[in-house]
Write a structure and sequence with these properties.
The protein is of the alpha+beta class and 643 residues long. It has 26 helices and 18 strands. The protein has a seven-stranded antiparallel beta sheet with strand order 3-2-4-1-10-9-11. The protein has a six-stranded antiparallel beta sheet with strand order 5-6-7-8-12-13, with helices on one face. A hairpin with a 7-residue loop joins strand 12 and strand 13. The longest helix has 19 residues. The two termini are 37 Å apart. 49% of the residues are buried.
């Protein structure tokens, strides 16, 4: 797990190598253990050094910051090259099945000088080229220079667990693991992307597709690669190499599917445990994190010294302390807990906004930040986490309405009525919410606006400056209904590729990397994801409204039944409303700031009025307030412009 960056210059461009030092320093938390630089041009051989001053007058620069996880020796240092001098790589991530791939490659004649997955990845690319990507089980973002073909190849993992951003600069192309690294380039355009500003402010949506909140900074989408000729760096070819299979439903019984999912999950956790440093786990007490912790103990027995790290909410209704304790005792872990206060949030909030590169939507991100901070204090460098399971297995309450809509679309009126009655008995549900959401999924776009008015959810709320968005050609979005018979499957797919997971993976990457911790997510492998998406919807959310039905059953005998039988859903919930009273002076200062007044997308006066109404109890709290202050502080911290 590391940080990477590179600059490919146009024919007449030059770069001061001090910029390389600035970029490297900006990524130092991602790789505090070691660093290296590469320089190359067609008129000089490749040079690799810890001193970028020796690389002046190159056309291509690559840099690497190392967090040592596998093969801690000098043999794992990057940039790394092949013995014949053709290929060179900088790599961020882990290839968990590197031992199996190494065996295959050795049978094909490859020899290895290290015990690192980086060398295996590079050998796999030299053997299979682009086809190597589909063989990897892991998370990755990497760049490979081919000095013979004179090309640069960039690739990002299947789900976007590891980030990779790029921009066009000085007639060339620059890329990095984080946006803030690209902002080290002099003269880089910091204009905001109006469409993404709208998406974030109106619905909290970020991180999907290829765009970012910066108009001129792109991200390589998950499961894509980019190939560019060094002779023409501003015309890259971008291609998809993998996608979720949605058009097949397996003819399989529930017991058969349960057994296979159990096998896939345990196999994945086993691979994710490969490390040359101690491994810990985030434990919320929910089904997903509990399954990972119990699977770790199940697979490695008493030999594993297992550390868990938990956020405990101060508000009793949000606290999962009893569930955390249940799992901690069952797995015999070394347990750590953190209970953040709103005063600590105020002290850390600006730093949190800065490290995230782009705004976020709620203080639950802070809870996660503190968990990783706790792990660093305990000298843990690798953590396993349950990210992705809710999107994959229908864990959020909103998916009850989606499953209900599926039953209606399929003409299963009796089952739908029964499903609704059972859903209403679960904590945190209401008939109005389920019915309106289901109607929204079933209605055509032309009827969306009236439905949204019923729930008082404007597509352009009055605290947005309608004129500014109209001037930039931004059309308000409505929630589009879903086609096809299986609405739940379509919604889960959208959550994995667009709505939810991309944001959560960015939050996790930045929160873990700022504490120099590699966070691993064993639910997110192509084998598990393709298998789950091939199952009937009732295996995901059963007709008795049990969410994650197949996974709960798959974990019987490994995870305590009291955890698997939970019907509530809390997660990393923070006491937003009670914290708001303590945070209100800070929020008011942000809303009254000079920066707020300079953002033309906002109607600041209306925001101030709305916030006072929330404080007075005249208006309900929602996450729009966090989106306001995050956007304003983000713009100020990173000198964002709104032309």
């Amino acid at each position: 797990m590391c940080g990477i960056a590179g600059i490919l210059l146009g024919s007449k461009s030059q770069v001061d190598v001090s910029i390389l030092k600035s970029i490297s320093h900006s990524l130092s938390d991602r790789g505090p253990d070691e660093f290296g630089f590469l320089g190359w041009s067609e008129t000089r051989p490749v040079s690799i050094s810890r001193n970028p001053q020796t690389l002046e007058n190159s056309q291509l620069y690559l840099l690497h910051r190392r967090l040592s996880i596998l093969d801690l020796s000098e043999a794992g240092w990057q940039p790394m090259g092949t013995t014949n001098g053709r290929y060179y790589i900088v790599f961020n991530g882990e290839i968990y099945n590197y031992l199996e791939l190494q065996t295959q490659l050795q049978a094909l004649g490859h020899q290895f000088q290290s015990h690192s997955d980086t060398e295996v990845l590079l050998a796999a690319y030299t053997q299979w080229s682009v086809n190597a990507l589909s063989k990897f089980v892991g998370m990755f973002a990497f760049a490979i220079l081919d000095t013979w073909e004179r090309t640069l190849f960039l690739a990002r993992d299947f789900f976007g667990i590891k980030p990779l951003y790029y921009t066009y600069w000085q007639d060339g192309l620059a890329f990095a693991s984080e946006i803030k690294a690209l902002l080290q380039l002099p003269g880089i355009n910091r204009n905001a992307n109006p469409q993404r500003v709208y998406d974030y402010l109106q619905s909290g949506l970020t991180d999907y597709g290829s765009e970012t909140l910066f108009a001129d900074i792109q991200q390589l989408p998950p499961s894509h690669f980019l190939k560019v000729s060094l002779a023409n760096p501003q015309k890259p070819q971008i291609s998809r190499y993998w996608q979720i299979e949605l058009n097949q439903t397996l003819d399989i019984t529930f017991p058969e599917a349960t057994a296979h999912l159990r096998h896939l999950f345990l196999e994945s956790v086993g691979l994710h445990l490969r490390s040359d440093v101690p491994v810990g786990a985030a434990l919320s007490g929910g089904i997903d994190s509990s399954a990972i912790v119990m699977a770790m103990r199940h697979l490695q027995g008493n030999d594993l010294q297992l550390h868990t790290f938990s956020y405990i909410a101060s508000e009793p209704s949000l606290s999962e302390a009893k569930w955390v304790e249940t799992v901690a005792q069952a797995a015999s872990v070394i347990e750590y807990q953190v209970k953040p206060s709103p005063e600590e949030l105020i002290a850390d909030l600006d730093k949190l906004i800065e490290l995230q590169d782009e705004p976020f939507g709620s203080t639950s991100i802070y809870a996660q930040y503190r968990v990783f901070q706790l792990a660093k204090a305990a000298n843990i460098k690798v953590m396993l986490d349950g990210q992705g399971a809710d999107e994959l297995l229908g864990g959020y309450r909103a998916y009850l309405a989606t499953r209900f809509a599926s039953l209606l679309r399929q003409g299963e009126w009796g089952k739908a009525s029964e499903f609704l009655q059972k859903a209403l008995k679960l904590p945190g549900t209401s008939q109005q919410t389920i019915l309106l959401r289901a109607v929204g999924l079933l209605l055509p776009p032309s009827l969306q606006a009236p439905v949204r008015q019923l729930v008082k959810k404007d597509v352009v709320p009055n605290w947005l400056n309608h004129h500014w968005f109209t001037k930039h050609g931004i059309e308000p979005k409505v929630y589009h209904g879903k086609k096809g018979q299986e609405i739940l499957r379509a919604e889960l797919h959208q959550a994995v590729v667009e709505n939810s997971l991309p944001m959560l993976l960015r939050y996790e990457d930045r929160n873990s990397m700022t504490h120099s911790i590699e966070s691993r997510v064993p639910f997110l492998t192509p084998a598990i994801v393709n298998f789950v998406f091939s199952l009937p919807e009732e295996f995901i959310i059963a007709n008795d409204v049990t969410s994650k039905a197949i996974f709960r059953e798959a974990m019987r005998g490994i995870v305590p039944d009291i955890i698997l039988n939970r019907q509530d859903k809390i997660g990393f919930a923070t006491p937003e409303q009670s914290w708001l009273k303590v945070l209100s002076p800070w929020v008011e200062n942000v809303l009254n700031s000079e920066m707020a007044a300079q953002i033309p997308a906002l109607n600041v006066q209306q925001m101030q009025t709305d916030f006072q109404a929330v404080l007075a109890g005249k208006s309900a709290f929602d996450f729009r307030i966090w989106r306001w202050v995050n956007l304003i502080r983000w713009a100020e911290n990173l000198a964002v412009t709104f032309e």
